[in-house]
Amino acid sequence: MALKKLGNQTVKFQNPPSIIATASIVGPVEGQGPLKDYFDLILSDFNFQEKTWEKAEKRMLKEAAEMAIKKSGVPGNQIEYFVAGDLLNQIISASFAARELGIPFLGIYGACSTMAEGLGLGAMLVDGGYADYLVVGTSSHFCSAERQYRFPLELGNQRPPTAQRTVTGAGAAVISSKNQNPRITYMTTGKVIDMGEVNPNDMGTAMAPAAVDTIVKHLEDSNRSPEDYDLIITGDLASVGKDIVERLLKEKGIDISDRYTDCGLLIYSPQQDVHAGGSGCACAAVVTLGYLFKEMQKGRYNRILVVATGALLSTTSVQQGETIPCIAHAVALENL
Amino acid sequence: MALKKLGNQTVKFQNPPSIIATASIVGPVEGQGPLKDYFDLILSDFNFQEKTWEKAEKRMLKEAAEMAIKKSGVPGNQIEYFVAGDLLNQIISASFAARELGIPFLGIYGACSTMAEGLGLGAMLVDGGYADYLVVGTSSHFCSAERQYRFPLELGNQRPPTAQRTVTGAGAAVISSKNQNPRITYMTTGKVIDMGEVNPNDMGTAMAPAAVDTIVKHLEDSNRSPEDYDLIITGDLASVGKDIVERLLKEKGIDISDRYTDCGLLIYSPQQDVHAGGSGCACAAVVTLGYLFKEMQKGRYNRILVVATGALLSTTSVQQGETIPCIAHAVALENL
């Protein structure tokens, strides 16, 4: 059963659900990055033997879910929900993966915050008694995202230094009521924050205030300080956004700089020429479920606050002159 | 606390959450239909004083949520979640409404099944102890949907008789742990069902098997028969899909024909020349939260099974030769 005080944005789970297995699949560029040894499968190209990038993305998500379920040892027919979403219009990666998985499906959308939304909702469903086992997943694909949100890749457009690279990959986690580490102990649901940014080539700047808002709310609601965490990690603010988060928090008297990093900074090396860093739903997903999950199992980290950020714009909203609404959801992962 | 047997798709709520207030806004065509007296606001045009149809849609959703909250008597700052989604790419109606509402936001996507997904998830969040009050909402708009999914309206394309008209409207409901009728007593989460249909101008045929699958699962899991309900109503199958549901269920020995109808049939009159009937996220939303909610308050209906259906395609998936994956989520509404 949950404990949540009215007015708070944070749920503290009284029986913290466990992440009993994870899987991560990445594309060829991420497979040359510093975290390459943590991923379960590295694709040799962008197509994954499919005819289109969108179908390749769907296949990554489907196979990541299957892989996580297999690792969990839970028979597939005992997985009660597939909670998933992605960046493509009408979340077709998730919907078509759900078609092939045959698991009752709850579609979600939080742009690049989707993994945290999914982990938080998944934990609520397990802790609330609605499922003993469920799988959460998300995906993104550099090529399908570029052509949907920006330009056809064939144009070879130049990108400004503030731009980020959409991570090609998929991550999935099986959440269960089993007593096993690591656990999901808190979920802080974000509000939509929009500081008036309009540049879709600078998502880090747009999303940083949402991350700050959610981190501050999480610390207030949980009565915790940054020192209670071994690591605070945002989803995909990359180099530009990460600096803004540190500065805005310092202005509020909160210093997280000695234990703070960003998934979009970790996934690529500076030599990879990806501009500001990584982004996309898969960025927080594969870094959290590939790298951080394994380091928690080893005991290197015991308390992590994952703050996945999402820019909730569309090409239509940009064309109609709207600014970029952003959100950040936080989940605390702990070895108890 | 919930009661759910492993392997079932159905949750039975032990403390069934209440729908304490609803609001519905519709466009001018729906405002001439047979249910017009049940809606809170009928727009005189498609623009709602906004510059674009997309902004009008967002405004409908935002105002429906505000109206439902006001009717509930709950102070706005005590509403703990806004659970919402819509048909537009990246669910911008919901995200931009969330920006203006300032309520912690969980974005969902289930195409035209979104209202049932939201009511079910909302009920889980309340019953699970994560919120005392939350608001669920969804919207659709004929003009924004046509230009996103089909053709620019300016072309004046002819539509086949199997086509449905996307309902212009928005519906919202405040769900609470208060002891008050009507309640949400069951949620059956759908699987994605795809029988190989490819015609995006005949959604009823595509979605009917998903509705059948969920109705059968609901009756099995809950150990109920159709006679346990005063009314079984699908979301937006309209005339073509409704007949298929009746026939497919009869083949399985289940006769619901004396207590079955469809939101897409009720919202327009045959004289309105809308072809097969209504569709869109708002179809199930305004019929359920406008018409059915009020008839339940009057006691005309005491047990309704709402089975909202969604076609999870996108223009990209259609262009890439994919068939149409469909889903249906069911929620039981009861006066206890």
From TrEMBL, chains A, B:
<protein>
    <submittedName>
        <fullName>Stage V sporulation protein AD</fullName>
    </submittedName>
</protein>
<dbReference type="InterPro" id="IPR010894">
    <property type="entry name" value="SpoVAD"/>
</dbReference>
<dbReference type="Pfam" id="PF07451">
    <property type="entry name" value="SpoVAD"/>
</dbReference>
<dbReference type="InterPro" id="IPR016039">
    <property type="entry name" value="Thiolase-like"/>
</dbReference>
<dbReference type="GO" id="GO:0016746">
    <property type="term" value="F:acyltransferase activity"/>
</dbReference>
<dbReference type="InterPro" id="IPR038369">
    <property type="entry name" value="SpoVAD_sf"/>
</dbReference>
